[in-house]
Structure formats: structure tokens, C-alpha cells
Design goal:
The structure is a single chain. 36% of the residues lie in helices and 13% in strands. It contains 14 helices and 18 strands. The chain has a 6-stranded mixed sheet. A 4-stranded parallel sheet has the order 5-7-9-10. Strand 12 (354-359), helix 12 (378-383) and strand 13 (387-390) form a beta-alpha-beta unit. The longest helix has 23 residues, at 261-283. Keywords: Glycosidase, Hydrolase. GO terms for molecular function: hydrolase activity, hydrolyzing O-glycosyl compounds. It holds the Pfam family Glyco_hydro_3. Belongs to the glycosyl hydrolase 3 family.
């Protein structure tokens, strides 16, 4: 690991390897700025550290369902401890966008909820916790994705105007001294006809009206839907920096080994292309040297404040991860919500009763989603207490006991999902059917299931909480934090 020239070939496949890579990089950065590496570790749906051994937070909508600022601050601190332990000191979180019913594909459980005031309180608490742990936070996606109807990872969203209160969560994060703000690719026609990340008007709104003085980072320019409206990656980078963005973001999956070698090589080439284009733009006067000087000063300050110097203290990974698991369990216990049929819980399971499980496969193609690769923990969790029979979706159920229909991302339209269709098919002749949504709560829409449960996350802590509600004490403490929901 310490041999010069070989570290660049390391494939990062575990927290231990990541810790070794970042320690090597920090120790070999003598005379340079302290090491500062960014990562997406939001909790819930999007986590770069998504290896099976990593304790995952239930995510923002779960925090909204719990409705507790202390838990949000604990979540930020726990994630911060995990990241700092492996040498990551800049987190591209929290999401400050509001969600709606039905949920925008790019937001959903990544949001704290639909009430801007509640989102503001929880976002600020998360920022405080994360930065207290020594990790820079990033409020995103300014000026807000609330109200969009297309996924900006697949198409460029256009809004007539910002929704009521859209800026409140960003103002709250700024008041909490958030280190960074990410500007999105959405067009808000009331502000400008250009994507936000390339709009001087949007950047002026952030700087002058909201009073943000930290680092502004762009949405991922590698995404075609982000760069194509601006003429390609290089031109998008130039437009963003000229408008007031300090750091442009590009794909960073080059060291994880999940992409083909040719794709990783293309990513490196794209970075070099952007550097050349920005350099040429400064030399031609397209981007003023003062603009570059401002960006450099802010980025240097971020490195000095949060970066890792050689020998800097880091939490021990096992302790940080164990602490995160405890926090995840507390959040899950307070967040899982029963939205129908709570009087039927816990389930009546006389000795010998067989519990049938029907897992409905995912149908979505969301780019910003690592949780879809999470193992299916529910059968193992429930089988620890009762006899369990797993039946494929669409197949007959040969037993008379309760049926659990569940899925993660099965919505096909705004008011229907395959999981809801499956639950409705089985909810006949007085059978007890429970539908559990482990992703967006929209999966419950239109269901005829006797009991509806919103878990907000497929990770182990939330699954354990569902198990307790179904077969333990039957008590759920969460409330769906999305207005306009219909079941």
C-alpha cells in the first residue's frame, strides 16, 4: 500500500482498504493542502460506503417521520464519525429539497419531508452533527428540487417558479454554518432561463440574499442531462465557474472497480479535458482571474478547516461503525409508520401458523440510488421468530396465514405500484395482508392491503423495526412526513 506508484491502482472495496488509501494519500501530501476527499453518504437511499459491513442510517424521510431534531443531529454525527474514520472529510449531504405526493423520482426518501419548516429544522440539525464530527456538510440541490416531475439524472427539469418555502431549508443550513452548497441543474424560469449551476442570478441569490460565503459545488457534470443543455462537459464547467461555482463535480467511481476499465479511463480523460478547458477559458479571459481567485481562496479555506493532515486523529472504524448502528436502530425505532390497520398489530400468530412473504421486484431505474443493492433482510429477520414461506409475486399462496407483501421501488405510475397490485390481488376472503414499503411511500398508493407500513429504508435497522412492529409489541412511532398522501 505504501509503495509509490502502486496506490493509484488500488481498488477500494472495504472500509479497511479505504482507510489505508487515505492514510497513504495524507502522508504523501506533505507541503500541499491537507487531504480533502468528498463523498455521497446521505443515509437511506444514497451511500457511497455501501459495503455490507457498514451500518447505514435509515435516511432523511425516516428522520422526518421521527420528527426529532436530536435524532437528525445524531445521524449527522454518526455518519461524520464513520467518514472521518476512513479519511473522508467532505460529505455531499444533506438534501435540503422538499418532497411531495407523489414523490419526484430524484427526491423521495432523500428529503426530510414536504413541510419546508420541518425540513429546515432537521437539515440544520444534520449539518450541526456532521460538522461537529469534523466533516464538511453540503446543502443540496439549490435552489431546490421541490415540484420537479422529471429525474434530473435523466432529463433537465424546468420549473416555472420555486415552491412556497423552498429556500427555508437552505437558509437554515447556512445559518447553521454549512460549509458548502451544491447548486443543481434545474431551470427555474422565474429566476433565469439557464440551469441553476450556470446562472449568475441563482448564484447571486445564494450569495447576496441568503448570505452564503462558503464553497459552492456543482451538480455532477458527468451526467448527460446536466451537461448537454450547456453544450457538453467542458462548456458546462466553464459556464458554471464563470457564474460563480467554486468546484465542478465529475464522476468519481474510478477507484471502486464497479465500472469497466474503459469507462474508468473515460472518466479520467474527461477530468483532464475539463482542466484544459478551464485553463484555456481563464487565459482567454472568458473566466476572470478574480473569479478564480475567489474560488481558490474558498477551497483552500475548506481544506484548511476540514482537511486531514498527516498523523491527524481519526476515530477508530469499529467504534465509529458500532456507534452508527446504535443511532440507526434508534432512528428506525422512532420512524417506521403504520398508516393503516394498526389495530391488527402485532399479527395474531398461533403456534404452527406460517407467515408468507411475497417480495415484489424493483422496477425503477433511478441513478442516485445505492440502496437497491441492499440484501433482502426481511425473511431472515422474520424467520428468527416464526415459520416463513417465500412465494414469488403473482404465484398462489398455499397457506391461510398472514401474507407480507413488500418491495423497495415498485411504482409504475403516480398512483399505482406493482407491490400495491400484488397486495390487492391477495387481499380477498378475509385474508390478512400487510404491505410494507421499504422505499418511497408512494408504493403503498392504491393498495387494498389490510395493513400498510412505511419503513422508508431497506437497511437492517429499519427491517428490524418492522419485524418488532409485526411480531413484537405492534407499536409504531413514526408519521409519514408528506402532505397529500392517499392510501
Amino acid at each position: 500500500m505504501g509503495e509509490p506508484g502502486r496506490i493509484s491502482k488500488a481498488i477500494v472495496g472495504s472500509p479497511v482498504v479505504l482507510d489505508g488509501v487515505t492514510r497513504w494519500a495524507s502522508e504523501n501530501s506533505a507541503g500541499r493542502l491537507p487531504l480533502l476527499l468528498s463523498v455521497n453518504q446521505e443515509g437511506g437511499r444514497l451511500n457511497a460506503l455501501d459495503w455490507p459491513s457498514v451500518a447505514q442510517m435509515p435516511g432523511n424521510l425516516a428522520l422526518g417521520a421521527a420528527g426529532n431534531e436530536d435524532l437528525a443531529e445524531m445521524a449527522g454525527a454518526a455518519i461524520g464519525g464513520q467518514l472521518r474514520a476512513v479519511g473522508m472529510a467532505w460529505n455531499l449531504a444533506p438534501v435540503c429539497d422538499t418532497t411531495a405526493w407523489p414523490a419526484p423520482a430524484a427526491v423521495g426518501t432523500r428529503s426530510f419531508g414536504s413541510d419546508p419548516e420541518r425540513v429546515a429544522l432537521l437539515a440544520a440539525a444534520f449539518v450541526r452533527g456532521l460538522q461537529a464530527a469534523g466533516v464538511a456538510a453540503t446543502a443540496k440541490h439549490f435552489p431546490g428540487l421541490g415540484g420537479i416531475r422529471v429525474d434530473p439524472h435523466h432529463a433537465a427539469p424546468v420549473l416555472d417558479r420555486l415552491g412556497p418555502g423552498a429556500l427555508l431549508p437552505f437558509q437554515a443550513a447556512i445559518d447553521a454554518q454549512v460549509a458548502c452548497v451544491m447548486v443543481g441543474s434545474q431551470i427555474v424560469l422565474a429566476l433565469d432561463d439557464r440551469p441553476a449551476l450556470a446562472s449568475p442570478r441563482v448564484l447571486d441569490l445564494l450569495r447576496d440574499e441568503l448570505g452564503f460565503g462558503g464553497v459552492v459545488v456543482s451538480e455532477n457534470l458527468s451526467i448527460p442531462a446536466v451537461h448537454e443543455p450547456l453544450g457538453g462537459v467542458a462548456r458546462a464547467a466553464i459556464a458554471a465557474v464563470a457564474a460563480g461555482v467554486d468546484v465542478v463535480m465529475l464522476d468519481s467511481e474510478v477507484s471502486r472497480g464497479r465500472s469497466p476499465a474503459a469507462r474508468r479511463a473515460t472518466a479520467w480523460q474527461r477530468r483532464a479535458e475539463v482542466v484544459r478547458a478551464l485553463t484555456a477559458a481563464v487565459e482567454r479571459g472568458v473566466i476572470g482571474r478574480q473569479r478564480i481567485g475567489e474560488a481558490v481562496a474558498r477551497v483552500r479555506a475548506l481544506h484548511q478547516w476540514y482537511g486531514l493532515t498527516p498523523g491527524a486523529h481519526r476515530p477508530q472504524w469499529p467504534r465509529a461503525n458500532a456507534s452508527a448502528l446504535q443511532v440507526a436502530n434508534r432512528i428506525a425505532d422512532r420512524s417506521v409508520a403504520v398508516v393503516r390497520g394498526g389495530h391488527l398489530l402485532p399479527l395474531n400468530m398461533p403456534p404452527g401458523t406460517v407467515l408468507t412473504l411475497v417480495r415484489v421486484p424493483d422496477v425503477g431505474q433511478r441513478r442516485a440510488d445505492s440502496a437497491r443493492h441492499t440484501p433482502d433482510y426481511l425473511p431472515i429477520q422474520l424467520a428468527a421468530h416464526h415459520r416463513v414461506l417465500q412465494v414469488p409475486a403473482g404465484a398462489p399462496v398455499p397457506t391461510a396465514g398472514p401474507v407480507i407483501v413488500y418491495g423497495y421501488d415498485t411504482r409504475t405510475t403516480a398512483d399505482s405500484s406493482r407491490a400495491a397490485e400484488e397486495a390487492t390481488r391477495l387481499a380477498v376472503n378475509g385474508r390478512t395482508v400487510v404491505q410494507v414499503a421499504f422505499g418511497d411511500v408512494d408504493d403503498l398508493a392504491g393498495s387494498s392491503a389490510t395493513v400498510l407500513i412505511a419503513a422508508f429504508s431497506p437497511h437492517r435497522a429499519s427491517v428490524a423495526a418492522v419485524d418488532r412492529i409485526l411480531l413484537g409489541d405492534g407499536r409504531a412511532h413514526g408519521a409519514v412526513p408528506v402532505g397529500g398522501a392517499s392510501w
